[in-house]
Write a structure and sequence with these properties.
two-stranded antiparallel sheet, mainly alpha, single chain, elongated, 346 residues, disordered C terminus
């Protein structure tokens, strides 16, 4: 589940923190990186468990409504939603149960939020259509939860705030983790019953090694990488570069030089996106041009044996020097998109 997009995000955060903290212990910083990534996997399981928590609360509400109907002689409430085949399978899932047993945090600690979410679900058009439909299939049960998650959990400011309060490590994780929760819902198969596999913490050992190697290369070769930035910044006002921009470019150079199988265009695209997220308004365009220039410099000096695609003009304005070239590599699929596609095709 922990893909390279998430790894890059965490490394940007922790490299920046490494330089801001007075105690620069590389071994401790690496442990912090791996712990931070493991917390992202906890968030993945915690969000799956939210579906279970909602189902349990809805079951409790139906039980109360049934007792009232018995007393008053009214029609019994529908059990269609609490009998949802996908949610029942998820509740019985062995991997999710094992994870829950190892945790201190549960949704029972935030039952008021769960109840509010139940109200939102019951008021939604998606829920109403599902309850009124005569279709009774596993596919329909799974699909209603996929829609409800996208509509009411993926975009939920109150939930975002609650998660941030629970763990500082979850501040920037949810957007990425949401995509994997949705993929997990899509992958569920009734034939697997409680043995349905959830996504593993890492897709393979190579991704875990990617995190370690990239982090260490970034820190250990910092002076060399910053020299490359300086030597290729003749047309740029390097002295006015935001500190986060330096960190992002330093990590990007480390990736270019440490991982021969990652195309230069993929690396540039990934870190331009991170610059837009973490740095200043114009950082994306500036870093795009700088990384392209650095990549060509490294190839020309024989320090990197990778192809560099021909650039295209980009609309971003440079940080200074209006005549400075701002170039963009040819459009290509990002590694994140490739990685997500691999999961969806499994």
């Amino acid at each position: 589940m922990i893909n390279r997009e998430l790894i890059r995000i965490k490394i940007v955060q922790l490299v920046y923190a490494y330089y801001q903290n007075g105690n620069r212990n590389l071994d401790n910083a690496e442990k912090e990186l791996l712990f931070s990534l493991s917390k992202a996997y906890d968030l993945y399981n915690f969000l799956l468990e939210l579906i279970v928590a909602v189902s349990r609360e809805e079951r409790h509400r139906v039980e109360i409504a049934t007792q009232r109907a018995q007393r008053e002689g009214n029609e019994f409430p529908s059990t269609k939603f609490i009998d949802n085949k996908f949610a029942t399978q998820l509740e019985d899932n062995k991997m999710l149960r094992q994870w829950k047993e190892s945790q201190k945090q549960t949704w029972e600690d935030n039952i008021e939020f769960v109840r509010k979410l139940c109200m939102l679900i019951e008021e939604s058009a998606t829920y109403q259509e599902y309850m009124e439909s005569s279709e009774d299939s596993y596919e329909a049960d799974r699909e209603v939860w996929r829609k409800l998650y996208k509509q009411l959990i993926q975009e939920n400011e109150e939930l975002d705030q609650l998660l941030e309060e629970k763990s500082l490590y979850w501040n920037d994780d949810k957007e990425v983790v949401d995509t994997f929760v949705l993929k997990t819902i899509k992958r569920f198969d009734p034939k697997n019953s409680s043995r349905q596999d959830l996504l593993p913490e890492y897709k393979d050992e190579e991704d875990k090694d990617f995190a370690r190697k990239l982090f260490r290369a970034t820190i250990l070769n910092a002076d060399t990488y910053q020299r490359y930035m300086s030597e290729t910044s003749r047309n740029w006002d390097f002295s006015r570069l935001a500190y986060m921009d330096v960190v992002i470019m330093q990590i990007a150079i480390a990736e270019m030089l440490t991982f021969p199988n990652v195309p230069v265009s993929v690396t540039i695209n990934e870190y331009v996106d991170l610059a837009k997220l973490y740095s200043t308004y114009k950082s994306g365009g500036y870093i795009n041009g700088m990384l392209d220039a650095i990549a060509r410099y490294l190839v020309k000096r024989g320090k990197m044996m990778k192809a560099v695609d021909s650039p295209r003009p980009r609309t971003f304005a440079p940080r200074s020097h209006e005549d400075a070239p701002v170039e963009e590599p040819l459009e290509t699929e990002t590694e994140t998109e490739i990685d997500n596609e691999n999961y969806s095709n499994e």
